[in-house]
């Protein structure tokens, strides 16, 4: 689907949509349509769609009204996204190939207009490449969306949001691909391709290099896999020369069988998206690089496949992490923290980070606690926590803060090593966060985002179809805008 901004769209497009604020009087359309809209209880509520056929300038048109909600609503931007997305949802597989969307009546700013377009575009993302037999009436038909009636400055505002959409789409693609297609090396290759020629610097470590650096935890998780583990870093120096970088770290378990502590069969296929943290970091970096963000940011991704095998690590094994701390691996299914602890330590050795935010599909317990509405946030710094919460609200990628504390930390003391990789059943998400905190140097603001409930959706949402949501990309992009770019 292509979005074109145009002062005067071609007149031969059948679908003619108009954005309408709640309660606004309808003018300039056929009186039968006005009556039809009223009879159908169309009020302009957010995302409401009314369609009527009418003869306009001698040709039959589908005249569409889409509700933008109250013009002074506190969540106006989100409502505008929903309005755009509602149009895509209705016409994507309608058989129509083009649509005109007129924004002139809704009293929008350039940023508001860009929000409508972002909703339109994000709701149109699909992954059909493995469907060779999709019936023609189920295939997306909508190719061109001509937007008109936008305020001055919309081009620049849209250029920025289109970069974010590109990042979200990249993440959704990585997350959706199955584990026979996306594994550590192919994840790296996908990033090398996406970032080629952008000015971002890419660093890749293979297993031998990680072994030499002493990353016994990350390498240990990948021991049972035929696929080589990788550590990937993407660096963007768009900020001032002396500005300390912000570092994002992602869990990239390209498939999580649980290892020797094998997961039960039903639902195991979901674990192809256990790289959603790394996927979000890659997509966020792509949006920042694409819109040439004025910020120094580094994305670090720990990429491994967790498989059972003769070489796999066993429950009870003791491994030594890059930090020197030893870990008793009681459960090989608690692998995300093992991947992250070495990635986090490496990132702190490598870069003088101003702040670190990690993202991970770390615990099922997080889904039990927060469902699919909020990612869980753990932070050692109130300012960082507040900034992330705010970015979550603005972007729609919502976060809810969870506690940390010494009494939780005690629960992961090991009788044989420094730490064990699982605590008791209670507070499972918190003890996972405590594990990570043991690898954060004092004084570095750090937040851990457990996004297990957010990466994948079993039903369509406002701006996504069912499947990969792209959660995290907009959050991180917004965070960079608010906190670093000012
Ligand atoms: N990747 C899983 C967490 C997960 C579960 C993410 C379901 C998304 C949906 C993680 O590696 C895991 O297996 N965690 C265990 C930890 C336990 C062994 C302490 C869990 O949550 O059960
Ligand atoms: Mn696991
Ligand atoms: Zn996992």
Descriptive terms for the model:
Aminopeptidase; 8-stranded mixed β-sheet; binds ligand BES; binds manganese (II) ion; 486 residues; 2 domains; binds zinc ion; Leucine Aminopeptidase, subunit E, domain 1; 6-stranded mixed β-sheet; 34% helix; 19 strands
Model description:
The protein has 486 residues and is α/β, with parallel strands linked by helices. It folds into two domains: 150 residues, Leucine Aminopeptidase, subunit E, domain 1 (3-Layer(aba) Sandwich), CATH 3.40.220; 321 residues, Aminopeptidase (3-Layer(aba) Sandwich), CATH 3.40.630. Helices cover 34% and strands 22% of the residues. The protein is built from 14 helices and 19 strands. The strands form four sheets. Strands 7-8-10-9-13-17-14-15 form an eight-stranded mixed beta sheet, sandwiched between helices. Helix 11 links the parallel strand 14 and strand 15. The protein is elongated, with a radius of gyration of 24 Å. The two termini are 32 Å apart. The mean pLDDT is 97. Bound molecules: ligand BES, manganese (II) ion (MN) and zinc ion.
């Amino acid at each position: 689907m292509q979005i074109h901004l145009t002062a005067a769209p071609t007149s031969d497009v059948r679908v003619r949509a108009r954005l309408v604020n709640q309660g606004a009087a309808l003018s300039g359309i056929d009186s039968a349509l006005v009556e039809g809209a009223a009879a159908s209880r169309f009020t302009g509520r957010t995302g409401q769609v009314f369609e009527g056929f009418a003869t306009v300038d001698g040709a039959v048109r589908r005249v569409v009204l889409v509700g933008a909600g109250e013009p002074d609503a506190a969540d106006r931007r989100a409502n505008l996204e929903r309005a755009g997305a509602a149009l895509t949802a209705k016409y994507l597989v309608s058989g129509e190939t083009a649509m005109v969307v007129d924004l002139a009546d809704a009293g929008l700013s350039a940023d508001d207009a860009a929000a409508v377009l972002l909703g339109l575009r994000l709701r149109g993302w699909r992954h059909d490449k493995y469907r060779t037999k999709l019936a023609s009436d189920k295939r997306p038909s909508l190719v061109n969306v001509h937007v008109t009636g936008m305020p001055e400055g919309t081009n620049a505002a849209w250029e920025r949001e289109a970069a974010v959409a590109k990042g979200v789409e990249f993440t959704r693609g990585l997350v959706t691909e199955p584990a026979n297609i996306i594994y550590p090396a192919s994840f790296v290759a996908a990033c090398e391709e996406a970032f080629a020629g952008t000015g971002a610097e890419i660093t890749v470590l293979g297993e031998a290099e990680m072994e030499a650096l002493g990353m016994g935890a990350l390498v240990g998780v990948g021991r049972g896999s035929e696929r080589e583990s990788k550590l990937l870093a993407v660096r963007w120096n768009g900020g001032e020369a002396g500005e300390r970088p912000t570092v994002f770290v992602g869990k990239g378990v390209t498939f999580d069988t649980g290892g020797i502590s094998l997961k039960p069969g039903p639902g195991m296929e979901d674990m192809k998206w256990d790289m959603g943290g790394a996927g979000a970091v890659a997509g966020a970096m792509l949006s920042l690089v694409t819109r040439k963000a004025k910020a120094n940011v580094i994305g670090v991704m720990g990429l491994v496949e967790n498989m059972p095998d003769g070489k796999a690590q066993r429950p009870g094994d003791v491994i030594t992490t890059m930090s020197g701390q030893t870990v008793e691996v009681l459960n090989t299914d608690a692998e995300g923290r093992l991947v992250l602890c070495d990635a986090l330590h490496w990132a702190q050795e490598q870069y003088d980070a101003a702040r670190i935010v990690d993202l991970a599909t770390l615990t099922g317990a997080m889904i039990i606690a927060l469902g699919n509405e909020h990612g869980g946030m753990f932070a050692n710094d109130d300012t960082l926590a507040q900034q992330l919460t705010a970015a979550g609200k603005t972007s729609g990628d919502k976060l809810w803060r969870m506690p940390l504390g010494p009494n939780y930390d005690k629960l992961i003391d090991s009788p044989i090593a420094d730490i064990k990789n699982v605590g008791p059943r209670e507070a499972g998400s918190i003890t996972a966060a405590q594990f990570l905190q043991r690898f954060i140097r004092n004084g570095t603001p750090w937040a851990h985002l457990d996004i297990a409930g957010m990466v994948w959706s079993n039903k369509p949402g406002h701006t996504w179809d069912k499947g990969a949501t792209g959660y995290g990309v907009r959050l991180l992009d917004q965070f960079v805008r608010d906190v670093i770019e000012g």
